[in-house]
Amino acid sequence: MDLQRQRLDRITASLLGGAVGDALGYAVEFQRLREIRRRFGPDGITDFVLQDGKAIISDDTQMTIFTASGLLAGETARQMQGQTGAPIRWIYRAYLEWYATQRQDVTVERPMTWLYNLPALHARRAPGNTCLAALGSGQAGTRWHPINHSKGCGGVMRVAPVAFVFTPEANLFQVMDLGADAAALTHGHPLGWLPAAALAGMIFQLIHQPGAELLAVAEDILTQMEAWYADIPSLEDFLALSRKAISLAGRSLPDDDAIRQLGEGWVAEETLAIALYAVLRYSGDFRKAMICAVNHDGDSDSTGAVAGNLLGALVGTKAVEAAFDLERLELAGVLRILAADLSRCPLTRQPDAAWLQEYGGI
Predict the structure, then answer these.
(1) CA angle, residues 35, 38, 39, in degrees to nearest 5
(2) Among residues 151, 193, 152, which one has the least CA distance to residue 176?
(3) Ramachandran region of residue 53, left (φ > 0), alpha (ψ -120 to 50) or beta?
(4) CATH label of the domain that carries residue 232
(5) Burial of 120 by CB count in 10 Å (0-12 exposed, 13-18 middle, 19+ buried)?
(6) pLDDT tens-digit profile of 53-106?
């Protein structure tokens, strides 16, 4: 497989994997582990729960799709109009469109991309209160001028597409900073955006380093962050919890005991830690990793989504398809289309009429 085809395969697997973990966990979000086991048996939830024949995604995958929407609209503007503004501007506009899908009193007259018009993206799937409040404020948060002090997981669970639009030669810190900035639009505490920076960096390296080992990538990103974000408050807390997850993954504790030491995933550093634990513990088995990532007391869809984004970028599409029936996954076809379009970025020539019809509403 040539490098471009491999890149497309990893991007596709990361998007589909995130949606798989999200859908698996969404069925048990807000349930304690004892309730999950009472409902599904001693192994907990192990396969999709279907509604009208589909495994339903949550706001996690919805917002991931809108992150992709903003990136693709921004790339189109850059090529067609010579606009060189930071991609974060377009991501913010896309999040405002997602906000409109969740409100009956807000409409978008001229959507940036075709994605806004998908009915499934207008369904309310337990949207995060922090995201709704921040986007409804009319202000965009930044790392330096935070909109709030939230460290909830609503930032980290949506940023995977940031890693897809850079060339292999891109500066790693530019990738991580865009992940951080995308999360900081709605989550102002450093622990709300540092995990997003780490996730973007890890996925970027997994996509562009054939044969890379997940453990080596995770350790390298944490080491890089130690220097790049050295002056950021709470960095040490983030690094300590992430490294604890890595350590626990190498031990023989039962998964529920190990995850209990990492938290419940409602806040971003715990979400990434639980996801890291699951994918490192079961890096050779996508299905087991997803089952591990969602069977705990906390925010199962977000930990599942982040775990799927990470491990998908490592194992590729065939492994994801072999583990779960993607024909039953809501919006799987849309995610495949998005993966193909994201893999064309950064655009090297002006897009054709078909592309402009989809991403040129700017």
Answers:
(1) 90
(2) 193
(3) left
(4) 1.10.4080.10
(5) middle
(6) 999 999 999 999 999 999 999 999 988 877 666 799 999 999 999 999 999 888
Q: Which residue type occupies 330?
A: E
> Distance between CA 90 and CA 10 in Å, rounded?
24
What span, in angstroms and rounded, lies between the C-alpha atoms of 56 and 58?
7
Residue showing tokens 């529920």: 256
Element spanning 146, H or E:
none
Which residues touch 3 (CB under 8 Å, ≥6 apart)? 168, 210
Cα 182 to Cα 8, 70, 319, 329, distances in angstroms: 23, 10, 29, 26
Cβ burial, residue 285 (10 Å; 0-12/13-18/19+): middle
| Residue 352 lies in domain | 3-359
Helices (H), the chain: 3-26, 33-40, 59-81, 87-101, 129-136, 172-184, 190-208, 214-228, 235-249, 255-260, 268-281, 286-294, 300-315, 317-323, 332-342, 353-359
Q: Determine the Cα–Cα distance for residues 14 and 343; give it in Å rounded to an integer.
A: 12
Which of 203, 167, 162, 140 has its CA nearest to residue 70? 162
39 to 48, 105, 161, 318: CA distances (angstroms): 13, 38, 34, 30
**Which among 338, 314, 68, 349 is positioned nearest to 210, based on CA atoms?**
314
Number of domains in the chain: 1
Identity of the amino acid at 215 = L
Measure the CA angle with vertex 336, ends 330 and 342; round to 5°: 130
Long-range contacts formed by 236-243: CB under 8 A, 24+ apart: 237/191, 237/269, 238/190, 238/191, 238/194, 238/195, 238/198, 238/269, 241/269, 241/270, 241/273, 242/198, 242/218, 242/269, 242/272, 242/273, 242/276
Q: What pTM was computed for the model?
A: 0.97
**Residue ranges in the chain modelled with pLDDT below 50:** none
Cα(226)–Cα(252) distance, rounded to whole angstroms?
28
Q: Output the pLDDT for position 346.
A: 92
